[in-house]
């Protein structure tokens, strides 16, 4: 059985302006989550990524049982987290995106209160030690730094030794050390069999931690899989600056290159081949490529590409960002460069997009 | 990633025994929450001041009003006006007004939302938040009644059952109406304001300052349906025995009805997190 199952989830908020009044059957509202499905296996770390407003927290809140879905079904450990709350809560731990502590209580008082509402709770001091807050037990919550508050939040989430842990932006506001500690803690929890669903803004964190992930955009999942799978669908990137007297037309590449003044950016699924061709051409032409960089696709790039596509005004909500596979191959034509002969010239992504948009 | 396994029916055997451990309301959870709430009340100086001192101060002002009022023909004395009035002040200031602030404050700090991610039941969360104020209010009422009875030379109440019924129903009613009022209070600043309508209505229409007997009949009859009137009538009857059997039942019914109405409003309208 999967620890978390989400099927066709939708979540709609009542229109903000009319929140107090009864809206008619045609109430406008705002659909924050539009038909989201995914599942998280037991003992897996699953990351939910997306820009602000993509619907991550709205999704997670339904899984935490704080809100009822507008449509679709959600199961946590086989139960409905909203309707069968009493069965789910003792087995889940939740770290909300922000706050939720009375500012006038001390750290220890807060942890004690939480242990008091949790079955089979760890001793409060133990929970605080786990997250490195043991020495701050006597401090009022209002005097904690942002990162320390996140640690306290994490301590509470771990108090009940949960089987399923929800972490909504656990490391936001933490310093690098705190982020590293948290990542290590999450890995240890997985080793003990805990299922973790986390949202995060730090993509390298997701790349390192997550067994699988999903990227959300405007209430929908637009990419999902293991980090490797999500990244593999994305082109690598080569960037450099041409000397003033070399026109971009002379470039040997039969892959699309975006030229901005002297700066050239090449996107390719065949990084090694494209780079070889470029470098051989440069050597034979005696050209120096300034600021040369070649980068394999990273999750960050995949993410940014999806986010950019979502921000483009003409991209309607029903169009889930850029196509993933290699595009329909309208490269600029046969290789111009000398030598490299008959390589098959894998035409790549970006060319296709201009065609689609036009 | 369509790992869509068919869901097992909800009644399937539970692998983990902890799930079965959840049974109804838990005194342990209420105690933990109420303890934290008491700590917060003690640390909130202005709330503590209002809760502890204001009812006593108001009781004195009640006495000076009662001293000047013509109570002849109402069956009331200064003592039997002031003592129930003092309890009314405790109910309004130490419990009702204070709890509106508590519920709104916890909501705006996202404490209520956080608590709901845990095992505590909704009723436990709301009840535990009210418990310290209600307990303090009951102790305060008993002290005021005892002290006042000695100072004003009022004997022991012949109907302590009515007095106790009024006190306890009043506490329940005030806590419920406070939770309901918090739903209509957007910010902690407004929490000073939203209790005003009920407080003013109680001052004027529930016999707190002015006995209803002085009012014209039709106005007095209308006032009998206000939320706090039955509570005040029950409290007063502890000494005066002014309520007949049917009138006592009616007072109980009206107080319970208002509590139920408040409970319904809480169910329907209570907000567990701030509007954003």
UniProtKB/TrEMBL annotation, chain A:
<keyword id="KW-0046">Antibiotic resistance</keyword>
<feature type="compositionally biased region" description="Gly residues">
    <location>
        <begin position="322"/>
        <end position="352"/>
    </location>
</feature>
<dbReference type="GO" id="GO:0046677">
    <property type="term" value="P:response to antibiotic"/>
</dbReference>
<dbReference type="InterPro" id="IPR003439">
    <property type="entry name" value="ABC_transporter-like_ATP-bd"/>
</dbReference>
<feature type="domain" description="ABC transporter">
    <location>
        <begin position="4"/>
        <end position="243"/>
    </location>
</feature>
<dbReference type="InterPro" id="IPR050763">
    <property type="entry name" value="ABC_transporter_ATP-binding"/>
</dbReference>
<keyword id="KW-0547">Nucleotide-binding</keyword>
<dbReference type="InterPro" id="IPR003593">
    <property type="entry name" value="AAA+_ATPase"/>
</dbReference>
<protein>
    <submittedName>
        <fullName>ABC-2 type transport system ATP-binding protein</fullName>
    </submittedName>
</protein>
<dbReference type="GO" id="GO:0005524">
    <property type="term" value="F:ATP binding"/>
</dbReference>
<keyword id="KW-0813">Transport</keyword>
<dbReference type="GO" id="GO:0016887">
    <property type="term" value="F:ATP hydrolysis activity"/>
</dbReference>
<dbReference type="Pfam" id="PF00005">
    <property type="entry name" value="ABC_tran"/>
</dbReference>
<keyword id="KW-0067">ATP-binding</keyword>
<dbReference type="InterPro" id="IPR027417">
    <property type="entry name" value="P-loop_NTPase"/>
</dbReference>
<dbReference type="GO" id="GO:0005886">
    <property type="term" value="C:plasma membrane"/>
</dbReference>
<dbReference type="InterPro" id="IPR017871">
    <property type="entry name" value="ABC_transporter-like_CS"/>
</dbReference>
<feature type="region of interest" description="Disordered">
    <location>
        <begin position="308"/>
        <end position="358"/>
    </location>
</feature>
TrEMBL record, chain B:
<feature type="transmembrane region" description="Helical">
    <location>
        <begin position="125"/>
        <end position="150"/>
    </location>
</feature>
<feature type="transmembrane region" description="Helical">
    <location>
        <begin position="248"/>
        <end position="266"/>
    </location>
</feature>
<protein>
    <submittedName>
        <fullName>ABC-2 type transport system permease protein</fullName>
    </submittedName>
</protein>
<dbReference type="InterPro" id="IPR052902">
    <property type="entry name" value="ABC-2_transporter"/>
</dbReference>
<dbReference type="Pfam" id="PF01061">
    <property type="entry name" value="ABC2_membrane"/>
</dbReference>
<keyword id="KW-1133">Transmembrane helix</keyword>
<dbReference type="GO" id="GO:0043190">
    <property type="term" value="C:ATP-binding cassette (ABC) transporter complex"/>
</dbReference>
<dbReference type="InterPro" id="IPR013525">
    <property type="entry name" value="ABC2_TM"/>
</dbReference>
<feature type="transmembrane region" description="Helical">
    <location>
        <begin position="45"/>
        <end position="62"/>
    </location>
</feature>
<dbReference type="GO" id="GO:0046677">
    <property type="term" value="P:response to antibiotic"/>
</dbReference>
<keyword id="KW-0046">Antibiotic resistance</keyword>
<feature type="transmembrane region" description="Helical">
    <location>
        <begin position="82"/>
        <end position="104"/>
    </location>
</feature>
<keyword id="KW-0812">Transmembrane</keyword>
<dbReference type="InterPro" id="IPR000412">
    <property type="entry name" value="ABC_2_transport"/>
</dbReference>
<dbReference type="GO" id="GO:0140359">
    <property type="term" value="F:ABC-type transporter activity"/>
</dbReference>
<feature type="transmembrane region" description="Helical">
    <location>
        <begin position="162"/>
        <end position="184"/>
    </location>
</feature>
<feature type="domain" description="ABC-2 type transporter transmembrane">
    <location>
        <begin position="30"/>
        <end position="237"/>
    </location>
</feature>
<keyword id="KW-0472">Membrane</keyword>
<feature type="transmembrane region" description="Helical">
    <location>
        <begin position="196"/>
        <end position="215"/>
    </location>
</feature>
């Amino acid at each position: 059985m999967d620890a978390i199952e989400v099927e066709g989830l939708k979540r709609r908020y009542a229109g903000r302006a009319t929140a107090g009044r009864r809206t008619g059957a045609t109430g406008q509202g705002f659909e924050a989550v539009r038909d989201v499905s995914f599942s998280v296996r037991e003992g897996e770390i699953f990351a939910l990524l997306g820009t602000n407003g993509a619907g991550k927290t709205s999704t997670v809140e339904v899984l935490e049982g704080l809100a009822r879905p507008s449509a679709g079904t959600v199961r946590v450990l086989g139960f409905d987290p909203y309707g069968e709350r009493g069965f789910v809560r003792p087995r889940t731990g939740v770290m909300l995106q922000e706050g939720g502590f009375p500012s006038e209580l001390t750290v220890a008082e807060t942890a004690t209160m939480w242990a008091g509402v949790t079955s089979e709770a760890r001793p409060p001091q133990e929970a605080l030690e786990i997250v490195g807050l043991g020495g701050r037990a006597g401090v009022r919550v209002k005097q904690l730094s942002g990162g320390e508050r996140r640690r306290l939040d994490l301590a509470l989430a771990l108090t009940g030794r949960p089987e399923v842990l929800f972490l909504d932006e656990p490391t936001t506001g933490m310093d690098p050390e705190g982020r590293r500690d948290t990542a290590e803690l999450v890995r240890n929890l997985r080793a003990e069999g805990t299922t973790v669903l986390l949202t995060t803004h730090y993509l390298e964190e997701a790349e390192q931690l997550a067994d699988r992930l999903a990227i959300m955009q405007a209430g929908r999942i637009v990419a999902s899989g293991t980090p490797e799978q999500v990244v593999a669908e994305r082109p690598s990137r080569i960037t450099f600056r041409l000397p003033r007297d070399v026109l971009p037309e002379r470039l040997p590449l039969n892959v699309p290159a975006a030229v901005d003044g002297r700066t050239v950016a090449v996107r390719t699924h065949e990084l090694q081949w494209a780079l070889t061709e470029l470098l051989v051409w440069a050597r034979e032409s005696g050209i120096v490529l300034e600021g040369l960089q070649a980068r394999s696709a990273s999750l960050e790039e995949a993410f940014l590409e999806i986010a950019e596509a979502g921000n483009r005004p003409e991209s309607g909500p029903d169009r889930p960002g850029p196509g993933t596979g290699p595009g329909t191959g309208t490269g600029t034509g046969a290789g111009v460069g000398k030598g490299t002969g008959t390589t098959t010239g894998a035409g790549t992504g970006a060319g296709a997009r201009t065609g689609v948009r036009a | 990633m369509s790992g869509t396994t068919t869901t097992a029916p909800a009644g399937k055997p539970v692998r983990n025994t902890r799930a079965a451990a959840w049974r109804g309301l838990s005194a342990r959870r209420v105690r933990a929450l109420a303890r934290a709430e008491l700590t917060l009340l003690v640390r909130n100086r202005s709330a503590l001041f209002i809760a502890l001192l204001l009812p006593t101060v108001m009781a004195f002002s009640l006495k000076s009003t009662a001293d000047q009022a013509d109570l002849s023909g109402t069956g009331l004395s200064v003592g039997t006006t002031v003592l129930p009035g003092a309890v009314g002040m405790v109910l309004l200031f130490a419990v009702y007004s204070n709890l509106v602030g508590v519920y709104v404050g916890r909501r705006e700090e996202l404490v209520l939302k956080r608590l709901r991610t845990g095992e505590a039941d909704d009723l436990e969360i709301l009840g535990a938040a009210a418990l310290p104020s209600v307990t303090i209010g009951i102790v305060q009422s008993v002290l005021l009644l005892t002290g006042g009875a000695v100072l004003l030379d009022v004997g022991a109440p012949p109907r302590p059952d009515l007095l106790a019924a009024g006190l306890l129903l009043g506490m329940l009613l005030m806590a419920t109406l406070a939770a309901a009022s918090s739903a209509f209070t957007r910010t902690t600043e407004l929490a000073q304001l939203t209790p005003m309508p009920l407080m003013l209505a109680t001052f004027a229409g529930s016999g707190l300052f002015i006995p209803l007997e002085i009012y014209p009949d039709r106005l007095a009859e209308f006032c009998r349906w206000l939320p706090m009137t039955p509570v005040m009538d029950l409290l007063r009857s502890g000494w005066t025995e002014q309520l007949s059997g049917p009138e006592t039942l009616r007072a109980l019914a009206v107080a319970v009805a208002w509590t139920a109405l408040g409970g319904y409003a809480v169910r329907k309208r209570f907000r567990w997190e701030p509007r954003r």
